[in-house]
Design a protein that fits this description.
OB fold (Dihydrolipoamide Acetyltransferase, E2P), elongated, 11 helices
Length: 730
């Protein structure tokens, strides 16, 4: 059953684990399998490969207990994505017996190198190229079909690892991938052979490869009949250059050759050596790979570079040979590169040279920057000697070449570039003439300007003294005149404001007496006349009108008290808005038996007179409406002082009303309209909340520091007159 189809229960075979995607494996799916351990090295810290009838899988286990190949285990754990393929993590295993290893399945080298056989027991054949011993493990490189794989097996007792080089072997082992963990990319494939018997030599190597006939260097890449798979070539030559642990270059009478070898034996230029290695091709040119070499014991031979024409290089001749070339230095580049011997970084100096119509490079690697190479002037004609490297295309055409310099001693300057050219001389003369002209002009200009500047400074100082005296005199006069004007303007404004205020107050008082006392007295007169007419004919109706007269007299008394209160001067006493609201409200409500409470919140601060005056009038109007219409027995006034606003709230426990259906100016009631207009003039807000049987709440919010009164004296008086509207019924 595929993992995607599994509804419940653990995975029971290796194939199901390997079929998991990385996302599925990361969910920690339970696994329970039985199989045979196919690979388990002693230094793996408890990790091992296990294989059942469906395939193999890797088990990640951090433990000091290491199973052995051939152990039959029952393993339970959870899935994990692994670095390349899914694996079993957090395992618990139990050995239940031993068994022969599963039969290795022969696979093609292309299939193996694709990574598809990861964790599987496979069989592969190839030629051994190199060997080395690491503890009790024999490691060798196997070449098959142009691919290289690393094989690890227990060291067979009494075996010489060098005898395997060049042999054709067949190995049965478990494939394991090397990978780039962050990218989960395949890098290489290794094979772990559990027993020496799983490595079979199908064709042994030559017992002594140095006993084979010598081959001329120029015949390495040529056709030779009868060559067998894995054959090695025996060459001999004089050392021209060595990069220890990487390669060595030799030459014989037929040409030069690059020999790749990991041997750390130090050689000197001129040493005569013989080498045995596998012929290969790099950049479409012959090379000897995986070679071993030794000195012949012959005396060192002199090494002289060949002076070759460019045409021969373009024909593909002299590759890896020791040559000398001339060219003109065009550019230079210095950079740090890794050392081929695995030591600290080296400094690579690249010289770009031109000879006839060809460009080539000369490169030298040194431990530190070479002062000789870095000091060669650009444009110099130089001669370099070193190892020639050709870059060939697939059709044999040479696309570029370079010279590998053994050291700075292999570079010689033939001719330095001439610096004092006519062009440079003209530039120097032009620059000198310009500098002399500029300097002379500058000296003359500075002298003239200094003279004129001294004269101008003297005049400016005299003018400045005179100007300072005039300024001081003018400043004193302006200050005196400003004080006089301020006093006159202040006195005039006070007189105009006082006159306007008196006129506005007289006008307000006249309107109020006309709208209240006179109209009330007129109504009383009419009602008394009606009572006189009906007293004899209809006493009950006359009594009704007499009651109206009493109410009018009572209301007239209230209006008279309020008018008297309004006439009191605030300037002759310390005004307290909350106290004024309490006194005026109590006088209005006492006649109706209303108990009034006044509450103050916040930090009490003085308000503009216009704001205090209007808040007092709004409070009086609200209490008057409560007396006339609500039938309440209790009222509360709350005054809240804020930083930027002041709030007045009047609340009663009367009968209440529907604000939308309230009588208005059309019905002769102007109380609520008057309060709204006062609030609107002061830039505030008013909110009236009421419902039948639930009392009435009037909330007024005004800016605490804003006085919208006009700035001019005449506008001030007109404004005060406009806000003294007559108080009317709701």
């Amino acid at each position: 059953m595929a993992p995607a189809e599994q509804a419940s229960g653990p995975l029971t075979n290796a194939s199901q684990v390997l079929c998991l995607s990385a996302d599925e494996a990361s969910r920690g799916i339970r696994i329970s399998i039985k199989g045979v351990v196919t690979a388990a090295e002693q230094d793996w810290g408890g990790r091992f490969f296990i294989q059942d009838s469906s395939g193999g899988v890797f088990v990640e286990n951090i433990s000091n207990v290491q199973p052995a190949p051939g152990d039959v285990l029952a393993v339970s754990g959870v899935s994990y994505p692994g670095g390349y393929a899914p694996i079993i993590s957090k395992p618990h295993w139990e050995k239940i017996g031993t068994a022969p290893l599963p039969a290795a399945r022969p696979v093609a080298i292309e299939q193996l190198m694709s990574g598809a056989e990861d964790s599987q027991r496979i069989e592969i054949s190839g030629i051994v190229r190199s060997t080395q011993i690491s503890g009790a493990t024999l490691e060798f490189e196997l070449v098959s079909g142009g691919y290289r794989i690393h094989v690890y097996e227990p060291m067979p007792p009494g075996m010489d690892p060098q005898s395997l080089i060049g042999a054709k072997v067949r190995v049965d082992g478990t494939a394991a991938t090397a990978y780039n963990a962050p990218l989960r990319h395949l890098v290489a494939v290794n094979v772990y052979v559990p027993f020496p018997s799983d490595c079979v030599v199908e064709k042994p190597a030559a017992p002594d490869p140095f006993a084979e006939p010598l081959s001329p260097i120029n015949q390495i890449g040529q056709y030779q009949a009868g060559r067998s798979l894995g054959y090695r070539i025996h060459v001999k030559g004089v050392v021209t250059y060595q990069r220890k642990g990487e390669d060595v270059f030799i030459r014989d009478a037929t040409g030069g050759l690059q020999i790749k070898s990991r041997q750390l034996l130090s050689l000197s230029t001129g040493d005569v050596i013989e080498a045995v290695g596998f012929p290969g091709v790099e950049n479409f040119l012959p090379v000897l790979e995986d070679a071993v070499f030794r000195r012949t014991g012959a005396a060192p031979a002199p090494v002289r570079p060949k002076e070759v024409p460019i045409a021969e290089l373009l024909m593909g001749l002299h590759h890896a040979d020791f040559i000398t070339l001339k060219g003109r230095l065009l550019d230079r580049l210095t950079e740090a590169v890794p050392s081929s011997a695995g030591e600290s970084n080296m400094v690579k100096t690249t010289l770009v040279l031109q000879t006839t119509n060809q460009l080539f490079t000369a490169e030298a690697e040194t431990v530190n920057p070479d002062p000789v190479l870095t000091s060669i002037p650009l444009g110099s004609s130089i001669r370099v000697k070193g190892i020639c490297f050709l870059q060939s295309e697939a059709n044999g055409t040479i696309k570029s070449f370079q010279v590998l310099l053994p050291g700075s001693n292999d570079v010689r300057i033939i001719a330095r570039p001439s610096w004092l050219t006519p062009q440079h001389l003209l530039i120097i003369l032009a620059v000198a003439l310009v500098l002399i002209t500029v300097a002379a002009s500058w000296i003359i200009m500075v002298s003239k300007r200094n003279s004129a500047l001294r004269h101008l400074i003297h005049e400016r100082e005299a003018d400045q003294q005179e100007l300072q005296k005039a300024h001081d005199t003018l400043e004193e006069r302006v200050k005196e005149r400003t004080q006089q004007l301020k006093f006159q303007i202040t006195a005039r404004k006070e007189a105009e404001v006082q006159s306007k205020a008196i006129l506005a107050e007289r006008t307000r008082l006249a309107k109020e007496l006309h709208d209240t006392l006179e109209q009330t007295l007129t109504g009383i007169t009419l009602q008394v006349n009606t009572v006189a007419k009906l007293f004899q004919q209809n006493p009950e109706t006359a009594g009704y009108h007499l009651g109206l007269v009493r109410n009018m007299l009572r209301m007239s008394r209230v209006e008279l008290r309020r008018s008297i209160w309004d006439l009191r001067s605030r300037e002759l006493e310390e005004f307290d808005l909350s106290k004024a609201l309490l006194i005026s409200g109590s006088r209005i409500g006492d006649s109706a038996g209303i108990r009034l409470e006044v509450e103050t919140k916040g930090d009490i601060s003085p308000l503009p007179e216009v704001v205090e005056e209007n808040l007092l009038r709004i409070g009086q109007e609200a209490i008057t409406n409560t007396v006339k219409h609500s039938g309440a027995n209790r009222a509360r006034i709350q005054l809240e002082f804020g930083v930027h606003h002041v709030i007045l709230e009047i609340q009663d426990n009367g009968s209440g009303f529907v604000p939308e259906n309230c009588a208005g100016p059309k019905d002769g009631h102007f109380g609520l309209l008057g309060m709204s207009e006062r609030v609107k003039r002061l830039g505030g807000q008013i909110l009236i909340s009421s419902a039948p049987g639930k009392g009435t709440t009037i909330r007024v919010e005004l800016p605490a520091g804003r006085s919208p009164a006009p700035k001019s004296v005449h506008e001030q008086a007109d404004y005060e007159e406009s806000i003294t509207d007559s108080d009317s019924d709701r």
